[in-house]
């Protein structure tokens, strides 16, 4: 029984890593940091898989990219992406998936906890990303915020809103409770 659960988690983790890579191909270049769907899948990985497996999923994604597979925004890859302007965001993905997962596990599927977890996760991505953007480009902190965070706030709010019904639909299937009628009382 336990090994079946482990295999399922590995499969789900791999699927979320693949979806994160697919999200990188949906990119709108607006400066040094493009608008992408990667972070939506990072948040979903944490919510659906929990801290440990969400981190595993993002770790697999980052490892694939570091090895040169074209899984980062614009179909790029390679270890050099970690030292470029978006490197902080990439590392922030790992921290965010773990933290969102841990908070979501703590909240036992309550929507308000999931929303707060995603807000915290998004802030973590911004902290890593904007800080690294400032270091790599030499721009002022206020300029890094205006280039690396402000243009994305509305889109990230929409991604959080979209994640809620996705999680509500998928969580029962992933947890094996889809179609199960619970007795009252």
Protein described:
This protein is mainly α and 185 residues long. It has one domain (2-174): Arp2/3 complex 21 kDa subunit ARPC3. Helix content is 71%, strand content 0%. The longest helix is centred in the first third of the chain and has 29 residues, at 38-66. The radius of gyration is 17 Å and the shape is globular.
The 3D shape can be described as globular
Percent of residues in β-strands? under 5%
Q: Helix tally?
A: 6
Helical proportion? Answer: over 70%
From N to C, what is the helix and strand string? HHHHHH
Quick one: CATH class? Mainly Alpha
The overall strand count is 0
| Major β-sheet annotation | none
Question: Which regions have little confidence, pLDDT < 50, spanning 5+ residues?
Answer: 178-185
Distance linking N and C termini: 28 Å
Helix and strand composition category = mainly alpha
Give the name of the CATH architecture. Orthogonal Bundle
CATH fold call:
Arp2/3 complex 21 kDa subunit ARPC3
Question: In the residues, how many domains can be counted?
Answer: 1
Mean pLDDT: 91
Rg over CA atoms, rounded to whole Å, is 17 Å
